[in-house]
Amino acid sequence: MALTLLLGVVAFLHSRDGNCQQLDIPVHAAADSAVYDLPRVDNDLEATAWAIFDATRTTPHGIESIIRNTTTSGTFNIHAQLCHPHLGSSKDILQIATHGVHYDSRYWDSTYQPAKHSYVDAALKAGYSIFTYDRLGTGQSDHPDAYTVVQAPLELEILRQLTLMARNGTLYSLASKTHYNTTQPSKFVHVGHSFGSFLTSAFIARYGPLSDGAVITGYILNEYLASAGSTSFSVEYAGKTFNRSSGYVVSKKNGIQNIFFGGDPKTAFTPELLEYGNKIKQPVPIGEFASAFSLIGNPGPSFRGPVQFLLPEFDFYICRGDCKGLADVKILNQTYPNAAAIEAAIQPNSGHALPLHNNATAGFLLTFDFLARHGL
Ligand SMILES: *[C@@H]1O[C@H](CO)[C@@H](O)[C@H](O)[C@H]1NC(C)=O
Ligand SMILES: *[C@@H]1O[C@H](CO)[C@@H](O)[C@H](O)[C@H]1NC(C)=O
Ligand SMILES: *[C@@H]1O[C@H](CO)[C@@H](O)[C@H](O)[C@H]1NC(C)=O
Ligand SMILES: *[C@@H]1O[C@H](CO)[C@@H](O)[C@H](O)[C@H]1NC(C)=O
Ligand SMILES: *[C@@H]1O[C@H](CO)[C@@H](O)[C@H](O)[C@H]1NC(C)=O
Ligand SMILES: *[C@@H]1O[C@H](CO)[C@@H](O)[C@H](O)[C@H]1NC(C)=O
Predict the structure, then answer these.
(1) Is 66 in the pocket of ligand 1 (CB under 6 A)?
(2) Of ligand 3's atoms, which has the minimum distance to the CA of residue 19?
(3) Closest listed residue to residue 92, CA positions, set 181, 191, 164, 187
(4) Which ligand is nearest to the CA of 207?
(5) Which atom of ligand 3 lies at the shortest distance from residue 181's CA?
(6) Atom of ligand 1 at shortest distance to CA of 32?
(7) Which residue in 78, 95, 349, 359 has a CA-CA distance of 20 to 30 Å to 44?
(8) Which pTM does this prediction carry?
(9) Options 3.40.50.1820, 1.20.1440.230, 2.40.128.50, 3.30.559.10; which CATH number does 12-373 get?
(10) In angstroms, what is the span from residue 181 Cα to ligand 3's centroid?
(11) 3-state secondary structure 41-79
(12) What is the CA radius of gyration of the chain?
């Protein structure tokens, strides 16, 4: 008890250029869903068998893998963190950040050397408010059925509901007044990483007017996307180690390195960063992978803000290890024809987990510079 209190105080004292508060938000959402043709995963052997099934060249993906179309609705607990810069340095802009698979919201807010590796700290320092949340199925949010509930369209609707709450003030009424005396920001920038970028790009495509700007990190639609295959995740069953139900899988440490760490191993990241990246990993429900196709390549004529695509140079899963030359602004313009600006940038000598590489801070600045150049 005393130790818990002490740790609480220490966590509170972690100095940043702002205040943060943890929230548990009941989110009501409804979406199309499906029963997919998937094997069951209840042990380690079946986890590897699922990965081989998923990576097999003749296994159907997308609409062909649907056995039955369904709908899902419910109220889900979403754990979140809302941070606001110190008064005076604030920009009137809230970033809404969505993390990818194999992680939860801690992806954005490293407690290991936060001054160098926390995107949240960097955003506060640059004057942005920032909202991060554990996607459904991860962290301290609810962990419903891995096959039929945690699916991409539902997660898109959860992101929409959270955005509506941010825009209409509900989010701020949930936050304690002892931490926040500020009025809610009036502009909203959506930031994604990896699967969170699938969601963010689909969100601005479908609900363009709800977003004033977007930053898509660690994702670009290209011919090598996911070509490394699910066996590269090196998964085991998450039932015992993470207390998850059937169908949740979790990467072993070598899978975390395969997917998230890249570049020159002597200079791009340290063994400590890999260790931390492994320590904060999260299980993934396999229905999420099966339904991810619905988020890809949706045209977004209603999005009118600026959008930045930020790619790690040596992203293995997204670009099969080399992203150079894969972002074509002309093609991106076909997807977002009315965007105020479209830019693509490469963060050199980095793998997929941008914040967990040595030069992360310089990468964060590429984003803040892009936003500032476009009035955000
Ligand atoms: C499910 O819905 C999609 C989209 O409407 C449709 O193309 C597909 O044929 C349906 N699948 C089944 C099995 O009903
Ligand atoms: C704000 O948006 C949320 C999410 O859609 C909704 O539940 C709530 O009723 C809205 N509140 C107001 C005051 O409009
Ligand atoms: C917010 O305002 C209240 C009452 O005016 C005050 O007691 C509190 O210290 C303020 N909090 C912050 C973070 O400024
Ligand atoms: C494991 O999860 C179940 C279902 O969510 C919950 O009832 C139980 O308390 C959890 N056990 C532990 C040890 O956390
Ligand atoms: C996208 O293409 C259209 C048509 O060529 C052009 O008018 C527009 O300025 C382009 N947008 C960006 C952001 O480059
Ligand atoms: C660090 O990142 C910045 C921004 O992308 C880049 O300009 C710089 O060359 C990088 N430094 C190294 C040592 O890779």
Answers:
(1) yes
(2) 13
(3) 187
(4) 2
(5) 1
(6) 2
(7) 78
(8) 0.94
(9) 3.40.50.1820
(10) 6
(11) CCCHHHHHHHHHHHHCCCCCCHHHHEEEEEEEEEEEEEE
(12) 19
Ligand 3, residues at Cβ distance < 6 Å: 177-179, 181
pLDDT by residue for the chain (376 residues), tens digit each? 344 444 444 444 457 889 899 999 999 999 999 999 999 999 999 999 999 999 999 999 999 999 999 999 999 999 999 999 987 778 999 999 999 999 999 999 999 999 999 999 999 999 999 999 999 999 999 999 999 999 999 999 999 999 999 999 999 888 876 566 566 899 999 999 999 999 999 999 999 999 999 999 999 999 999 999 999 999 999 998 999 999 999 999 999 999 999 999 999 999 999 999 999 999 999 999 999 999 999 999 999 999 999 999 999 999 999 999 999 999 999 999 999 999 999 999 999 999 999 999 999 999 999 999 999 9
341 lines ligand 5 (CB under 6 A): yes
Phi first, then psi, for residue 98 (nearest 5°) are -115, 120
Is the Cβ atom of 350 under 6 angstroms away from ligand 6? no
Ligand 3 atom 10, closest CA = 178
SS3 label, residue 285: strand
Domain boundaries, the chain: 12-373
